[in-house]
Amino acid sequence: MSLSDYHPEAGTMTEADSDDSATLDGLPVERAAAAVAGDGENSDEVRETLAIVARDGVVRRAAVDDAVGNASMVATTAETRVEFAAEKLDSARETAAPVADLDLVSSRIDDYDTRLATIEDRADSLGDAIREVLAMKSDGDLYEIARRIRRVTSAATEVQRAADDLQLEVDSFAEWLTDADRRAEELAADVDALAESVDELDDVAEALAVDDGGPESEPARAWAAATVRHRVASLMIADLRAELTALRTWGEREGESRPSDIESDLEAAQAGHETVGERLTATAEPEWTERFDDRLTALDEALEAMEPPVSWAEVEAVVEERGPAIE
Predict the structure, then answer these.
(1) pTM metric for this prediction
(2) Within a 10 A sphere around the Cβ of 54, how many other Cβ atoms?
């Protein structure tokens, strides 16, 4: 048979030859890649994939064991990192036990639990994928074997990265749990960030006061974008105020008076936010509100249904789904 008789997408060959070992086993990677790559196939990707089951530039079935061994090591490392993340979370949960009734704390633990469960499910699937490859190693399609090894290695690397990220966040959370000064400093930083955002919106409102244009104009889009940011900031204010209340309750339990001057800063930011809202309303052309009103109303309804502690990933998704199309 000719090399063109090989059809990797089907995992089989034509009737001209029923043994894929005779087709790819023993071929230089370049020739094997040329045989496998069909219309629409990325030849570089095919070449890199086949190299996984090659020795000295030649595709070899005997190379499958080593390739699976390498993938297994990567998977084992990922599984170990997931176990470390679970241990860290268990430790943080113990530390948080005295204040687990505070939504500010319990919501973070719930989020970590959900993420860990997802990562654990992905880690569990790695072993199944490797066992499937081992079942194919004697007579399975070499290109398909290589593709599966590549996929499981990539998946294991992603699992490890996710587990490492979770570990770092849980470590930071554990430090936050035991350090009242840090909790106050982080809240103060968030209030400062809110104030900066309000100042930026004020600049936009000032610029819009001297601009006009139709509903498709740049000023109209700038007004809609600023209005979305303003409404998200309303939710941020509620979230920060709830966090301030929770930290005060926490501090009272521990005999601490912190945080002290954060409330005045938050009130100043809220006052500025209200002023900006009035200016944005005053500068809006009737055509702008007519164009964007339905979507802004839908966004308002979705945001109003959210309560502290706020999941900002969910807020971002809601803005993407319900917010006005500004581009």
Answers:
(1) 0.84
(2) 21
